[in-house]
Design brief:
Pfam families: GHMP_kinases_C, GHMP_kinases_N. By secondary structure, the protein is α+β, with helices and mostly antiparallel strands. Helix content is 33%, strand content 27%. The strands form two sheets. Strands 1, 2, 3, 4, 5, 6, 11 and 12 form an eight-stranded mixed beta sheet that branches. Helix 6 packs antiparallel against helix 7.
Length: 307
């Protein structure tokens, strides 16, 4: 058994407007950890975008790893983790899902569990509560996922979508709990039917790579964006300015406060230059879809696409 592993987990964006709690896309920003068996738990943060957690047992990665071990009737040995992240915290880019998936994969490697992607998603969803971000991080690509009442999780994933995005990453946080609390407890039948139809149209547009149409549907959500936009300063102005700068459409990434614009491939830098200096509280970052999901490298350097 190897005693050292390098694990890479992609960031994710969820919802894409009307695909509420179901659609996710893996992004080419990463949480990376080097894992080595040790006598006691130790975590070294090697970059920004990481929580300061003095007690390793309180760390989300460790909690996910130990939960995975317990679910299989095993005890996880202590490890030394060296962690880097390109995924900002509390910004709607799946930072918590990435940490949970990293922990699940850590246990999978250290304990040689041989988990399938579906197995990993079940554990991650137990901790996350919904599978959209975790599914994207595990499988990579474009995913649609749903949890059934019997505990089964249904997943569709596609890798052929050649879309490009620009993120508007703010210098302020928005906790998912606060973004959840503004949503209504119920929707009328008319609203639900219209919102569901828009999500279906969005899916069809992405799968057929009809990005101009996809951008239209991204901006027609009825489930969450009408309630969350006011929690994000300048979000409505950003959507208008992004459209004028050439975006097909702009939506909240996950629960926010990051916004995501779908743009024509090859125009990312031009798009960003048109908006330079207009929104100083937001960093504009080009990003593409990740297609690998989880990647693990063992001590000898061989890569294992672990999804």
């Amino acid at each position: 058994m190897s005693k050292k592993w390098a694990i890479s987990i992609p960031a994710s964006t969820a919802n894409l407007g009307p695909g509420f709690d179901s659609i996710g896309i893996a992004l080419d920003k990463y949480l990376e950890l080097e894992v080595e068996l040790a006598s006691v738990w130790k975590i070294d943060n090697l970059s920004e975008n990481l929580p300061d957690v003095p007690n390793p047992q309180d760390h989300l990665i460790v909690q996910a790893a130990e939960k995975t071990a317990r679910l299989h009737g095993l005890t996880l040995p202590p490890c030394h983790l060296s962690v880097r992240s390109e995924i900002p915290l509390a910004r709607g880019m799946g930072s918590s899902a990435s940490a949970i998936v990293a922990g699940v994969e850590l246990a999978n490697q250290v304990l040689e569990l041989g988990l399938t992607a579906q197995d990993k998603l079940k554990v991650a969803t137990l901790m996350e509560g919904h599978p959209d971000n975790a599914a994207a991080s595990i499988f990579g690509g474009f995913t649609i996922s749903s949890s059934a009442d019997n505990g089964e999780i249904h997943v569709f994933h596609a890798y052929h979508i050649d879309a490009s995005f620009v993120l508007f990453i703010p210098n302020f946080e928005l906790k998912t709990e606060a973004a959840r609390n503004v949503l209504p407890d119920s929707y009328t039948r008319q609203v639900s039917a219209q919102a569901s139809a828009t999500a279906s149209l969005l899916t069809a547009a992405f799968l057929s790579q009809s990005f101009e149409q996809a951008g239209v549907y991204m901006e027609q959500d009825l489930f969450h964006e009408p309630y969350r936009l006011d929690l994000i300063p300048e979000s409505r102005e950003i959507k208008i300015a992004a459209k004028k700068a050439g975006a097909f459409g702009t939506c909240i990434s996950g629960a926010g406060p990051t916004l995501l614009s779908l743009v024509q491939k090859g125009t990312e830098r031009e798009f960003i230059s048109k908006l330079a200096g207009i929104f100083p509280n937001f960093q504009l970052v080009p990003v593409e879809m990740n297609r690998t999901g989880i990647v693990v490298k063992t001590k000898n350097g061989s890569a294992v696409f672990s999804n």
